[in-house]
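Notes from hallway chat w/ T.B., transcribed later so I don't forget. T.B. wanted the structure written out for a chain they're using in a teaching module, and asked if we could keep both sequence and structure tokens in one place. Agreed to drop them here.
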Amino acid sequence: MSLLRLFAVALFTPTLLATDGSAASLTNLDANEHKPSVISGKDGQSRVLKPKEAWNDICPKGCVVRLDDNENATYELEGSDVVSIEDGFIYYDRDVGTSPPLAPGAAPSPPAK
């Protein structure tokens, strides 16, 4: 019986300990302040991001973010997205300068890993 318990512990412990641990992060790379607001997921959260400031650990399970209270600048983020604000748009942080902006209201596919 003890061997069976050891096997069960060895089999299920990684599953129990495995947590995603990732949540979306948003960095303001613009020269101007921007106000992102989480409008689904964590209701009512918003803040002003100064230039070069980051907002980490938002949207662990995904959410909708609105930029500068503009209804036309609404983005869906997945929990592991790493994005930045550049020129008033939200972009994936892949190869700097080569990632297209996320379309407002779009549910983008995460980059291939």
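Follow-up for T.B.: The chain has one helix and eight strands. Might be a good example for the class.
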